[in-house]
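User: Okay, second chain of the day. Same drill as before: sequence in, structure tokens out.
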Amino acid sequence: MTTTAAQAVEIEYWQYVYETRVDAMDQLIERFEAENPDITVVHTTFPYADYQTKVAAASIAGIGPDVVQLFYGWLDNFVNAGIVQPLPQDAFPHEMIETEFFPIVEAMKRDGEYYGLPTAVRSLALFYNKTLFEEAGLDPENPPQTLEEFVAAAKQTVQFDSAGNMISAGLAMDMAGQDHQWWREVLVRQFGGEPYADNYRTVTYDSEAGLEALQFYIDLQTEHEVGQVGFMDEAQAAFRAGRAAMTIDGTFRLGSFETIDSFEWGVTELPANADGLRSNYASYWANAITAQAEGEELEAAVKFLTYISSPEAMQLWLDVVGELPARREVALTEENLSDPIYGPFLKALDYAHTTLFVDEAAQRQVTIDMTNRILIEGQDPQESLTQAAEAEQELLDAYYAQ
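Assistant: Same drill. Structure tokens below.
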């Protein structure tokens, strides 16, 4: 974050390491610098596990990025710690944001101010291995559309060796991946409940519907035996290796799955319940201007954020990463909506929910612990659900008490 010459300024951009996202940002920076030769953008990345800590430490030390990437669910932590500043309304008018971006961008708004904008948005879908479907006698062009069909397909595609060990899952189960979003914002609703009330301040999934949703998930391993938590460590790894017929994942996985050359895969909307109800979870990583950006650095940061949230940047991000453009005009084209890969994700944005996390990592861990207590320790599902709801409510209460 230094001025290198009378008419030149250097700013820093930080994000976490994810190969396709890093590649896309490198390309965007190259284009931006070509159009703005007086601005240099230093691109710095960190492993996901260390990222929040690095950003917080740099902020305390008064160093670090001028523009920072953050998960929307981290916003309150970043605002309360004074890491980011409101977007200047002359450069980012609220009317423009609320007209041109998908509504989920409002998760970046606090006390009447927007603190960041996404380049892309994400939803979930069911990825399936067409090769394994065909080998199991299923129509690879007719993936499951209901929960009942989904379980049936998983049971038909799971494979065991002669000793009874699972060698290929019908479904790759992974609460640490996207299953916690599937359970919270999809299954709980499909079984007739609501995961939260009071604008996500009150946990309400400790209910009959929540228990049924949890039991459905647990039964995938214990009754139907179509998946195992921890199988090949990560769901996406099992799917990439051709050792899982299905996995639930997000648009961000498209870029890496495109490198698969050992089998053909497809995408379909998350299964509906018996009444046809679908639900989904939508999320995004936003880019924000840090509180330390001032003067020439602030002006440069505003220009850079304007560019990386532009239609041009969003189209490049879609092409390289596979994540959906955050602006309606770029995302909702006839070509994208009819695309067999992008279409299911785009359709989901119409009925998706965006969880307002106060601590995404901690709230995710609550669901991981909940299922582990049942599957590993043998705890009663109702007891584990209640314990999870109490633990998450404590997190919410502690945050809002501040």
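The chain has a mean pLDDT of 95.

User: Thanks, on to the next one.
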